[in-house]
Amino acid sequence: EIRFVKGVLSWFIAQIMSFQEIVKLYDGETIQLEECIREKVEVLENKNKCKTFVLLDVGEIYRKLENWRHLLPRVEPFYALKCNHHPLVAKVLADAGIGFDCASKKEIKQILKLGVDPKRIIYANTCKQKSYITYAGSKNVDLMTFDGVHELIKIKDLFPDARLILRIQSNERHKAKHNFNTKCGCHRNHSKELLAQAWEMKLNVVGISFHVGSLPDDAECFASTIADAHFVFQIGQSLGFNMTILDIGGGFPGIDDDGGKFEKIADVVNKSLDLYFPVSQGVRIIAEPGRYLITSAVTLAVNIIGKRIVRQNFKKKNQNGTTHLSLSPLNCNASHDKGRDSNMTHDIRRTDDDIRNNESLVYMYYVNDGVYGTLANVMTDSVVIQHKVLYREAQPDADASPKKPSIIWGPSCDSLDCVVPDCNLPDLKVGEWLYFCNMGAYTLCLATDFNGIERPLVFPVCSKHYWNQMYPEGSPMLYLPYV
């Protein structure tokens, strides 16, 4: 009984603890990233637990939100929860008063448990399970999207009082890394027929939405699609609908060092809104940013758990222009540095034949997170992520140290689990650490436990500068429900 009481008491305390007992605060305006990572590494190594972990900088989320409000003052952000649904991320954004783009019953439930008004939620999934529509109706989450007649039939049967947003396709003249037109959205030329069907069914269409695609090529995609939305808006109004909402979706970049791309997008959006949806018309403008708000707020740290050195044999291009690359084991007599990992190169003998045969050494490092875990974005986004070495002490000339051709592998047994297929790293030891910045979007939410590999620990941090802006009246009582 005593054990049970202690357990209940511990759980109760955990539910009402303040943010400051969860989020570690640091002096200054921003987090000193490497110092913070070293601090967490030291804690883990002292416990002999060299687990992968992420730093979640909630102050960075707030900074990005304030930048959004400054550059896009007319556009209300509805955070795309699918991008990163960590409870603390949702809590911080809920406290900041923004809306949420939810795609399922579970996501809606998570946000409602935080006390968010149902009117601050858009159910932005054009293909909804029937039971999810019923749930949304029971919770008065009445703003939802559609793009076809079969979705209208479901909504008519299950939630006829819903406020509906017609999702249209983005303008086809522009490209994006992930284009959604094949799966989602009604073509503008078919919109009149679909809106007429909604009118005949006595449903309440209140606006238009679109999504230019994830990681679009240029900012002008917003201008052309806002113009398309205006065209469809007028069709809806001509049919008798009271069109009051324009949802410009997502596609906003999450990395600051993108040559001012977000600023360019904001400028294009503002000018297009002024042209097609001037303030005098009273149209409410919303958007569904995900990557923009969360990408730069998360840094992943991984431990090197294995190492191999192999020969890399380059072969000439064939007729198709393909370069063949083969890796072969390196036979070497490696000495062991007392109590420390060996560099495994002390007794390697490279011969003149090696050089004549155009062979070189490749250093393969195995880390404790991979593409089936937090580094899933390597596959989903088809990007080469930026990696950095965590040195035990700050080294101003670290970039000048000799680099070796290297490959970074994930920890699973699958050969597809390759994090960085081609890079240059100094000669590192097993037990050293690497870290990856800008890991907030579509990472933690896509991580699996494939091969039984553990998911990363999460260490929330924040600078006192942004903390005091977020909560000027003091730390709120925190409740992070299990979802």
Q: Which CATH class of the largest domain is shown?
A: Alpha Beta
Spell out the CATH superfamily of the largest domain: Alanine racemase
Q: Give the class from helix and strand content and strand pairing.
A: alpha/beta
CATH architecture of the largest domain: Alpha-Beta Barrel
Question: Which key phrases capture this entry?
Answer:
alpha/beta; Lyase, Ornithine Decarboxylase, Chain A, domain 1; 2 domains; lyase; De-COase2_pyr-phos_BS; globular; ten-stranded mixed beta sheet; 14 helices; 20 strands; single chain; about 475 residues; EC 4.1.1.17; TIM Barrel; disordered C terminus
Task: Describe it.
There is one protein chain. This protein is an alpha/beta fold and 483 residues long. The chain has 2 domains: 59-294, Alanine racemase (TIM Barrel, Alpha-Beta Barrel), CATH 3.20.20.10; 297-461, Lyase, Ornithine Decarboxylase, Chain A, domain 1 (Beta Barrel). The protein has 14 helices and 20 strands. The chain has helices at residues 2-16, 33-46, 58-71, 87-95, 105-112, 130-138, 149-158, 191-200, 220-239, 261-276, 291-294, 352-356, 377-380, 464-470; strands at residues 24-26, 53-57, 75-80, 99-102, 121-123, 143-146, 163-167, 176-178, 204-209, 214-216, 245-247, 284-287, 298-314, 325-329, 359-367, 387-390, 404-409, 418-425, 433-436, 457-463. The strands form 3 sheets. Strands 1, 2, 13, 14, 15, 16, 17, 18, 19 and 20 form a 10-stranded mixed β-sheet that branches. Strands 5-4-3-12-11-9-7-6 form an 8-stranded parallel β-sheet. A two-stranded antiparallel ribbon has the order 8-10. Strand 17 and strand 18 (418-425) form a beta hairpin. Its cofactor is pyridoxal 5'-phosphate. InterPro entries: Ala_racemase/Decarboxylase_C (IPR009006), De-COase2_C (IPR022643), De-COase2_N (IPR022644), De-COase2_pyr-phos_BS (IPR022653), Orn/DAP/Arg_de-COase (IPR000183), Orn_de-COase (IPR002433), PLP-binding_barrel (IPR029066). It is an enzyme of class 4 (lyase).
